[in-house]
Amino acid sequence: MHEPDAAIGALRERLAQAASVCVLTGAGMSAESGIPTFRDALTGLWSRFDPAQLASEAGFRADPALVWDWYAERRAGVLAAEPNPGHRALADFARRRPGVLTVVTQNVDDLHQRAGNRRAIRLHGDILRDRWLESCPRDCDPAQATPGRPPRCADCGNLLRPGVVWFGEMLPAGALEAAEVAARGCDVMLVVGTSGAVWPAAGLAALARRAGAYVAILNPADSEIDADAHLCLRGTAATLLPGLLG
Ligand code: APR
């Protein structure tokens, strides 16, 4: 048996025995569904912008139409995409072993949910759900906004913004706490398709390891948190996960 095959076999066994598994996913998880990673999305028309301009409140306030258009394009990509065999392997595992798996995702698409993992913890929000830029004192329904780029409230002019977490913003209430509970309590953590560059999500692997979990990274390239893992498997989400969890 080759070295990687042996490592995969041992990890497969750990996963089969684990009472609790936490899987942290990033943009690479959805790459094989045709959704470009954040950095890959900044190509073509968008290559002259930097992430802070397109993914920050200041950037949105400076040019709401530009940022709205960028998210509209990404949203259309999400709606056109389908879960890949990696998402489906996680959902099948959850169905077969109820109560064992917690998925924690940095992705703003809904592919884990559509594959069947409805309770995935979403650290960075949901690109398909808009919210008001300013908090609305009357609790108006964003669906009632007047169409535009971006849509706005006909009464007060409040703008809609994508329901994602931008750089410098707080994570959705309770999401990080729930993810930390899952990381601390798991026997095995898989870290799939993340560069490990964005905090606090990137800290979950080290947290799990300190609490005694076995940590494996699945990524075709190096990540910034490789040193936090016991094992780094160089491969893609859609090719590795079905073999590990099947
Ligand atoms: N399978 C697994 N991993 C992959 C694949 C694949 N098919 N293709 C690419 N990758 C890996 C890349 O090697 C890289 O390490 O996915 C990672 C993508 O990195 P990023 O684009 O930085 O995505 P992510 O780590 O999720 O970014 C975190 O930053 O952009 C913000 O809020 C956004 O949630 C995002 C956060």
CATH C-level class of the largest domain? Alpha Beta
The 3D shape can be described as: elongated
For the record, the CATH architecture of the largest domain stands as 3-Layer(aba) Sandwich
Assign a percent range to the helix content.
25-40%
Major sheet attributes:
6 strands, parallel
Arrangement of strands in the largest sheet: 3-2-1-6-7-8
Q: Which stretches are low in confidence, meaning pLDDT under 50 for 5 or more residues running?
A: none
Strand content: 15-25%
List the helices and strands in order: HEHHHHHHEHEEEHEHEEH
CATH topology of the largest domain: Rossmann fold
Ligands present:
adenosine-5-diphosphoribose
Query: If helices are DSSP runs of H or I spanning 4 or more residues, what is the number of helices?
Result: 11
CATH superfamily of the largest domain: TPP-binding domain
- How far apart, in Å, are the first and last alpha carbons? 20 Å
Structural class: alpha/beta
Descriptive account of the structure:
By secondary structure, the chain is of the alpha/beta class. It folds into two domains: 1-33 and 82-124 and 171-246, 3-Layer(aba) Sandwich (Rossmann fold); 36-80 and 125-164, SIR2/SIRT2 'Small Domain' (2-Layer Sandwich), CATH 3.30.1600. The protein is built from eleven helices and eight strands. It has helices at 3-17, 28-31, 38-41, 51-54, 57-62, 64-80, 85-96, 111-115, 175-185, 204-210, 237-245, and strands spanning 21-25, 101-105, 121-122, 125-132, 160-164, 188-192, 214-218, 231-233. A six-stranded parallel β-sheet has the order 3-2-1-6-7-8, sandwiched between helices. β2 (101-105), α8 and β3 form a beta-alpha-beta unit. α9 (175-185) packs parallel to α10 (204-210). The longest helix has 17 residues, at 64-80. The mean pLDDT is 94. The chain binds adenosine-5-diphosphoribose (APR).
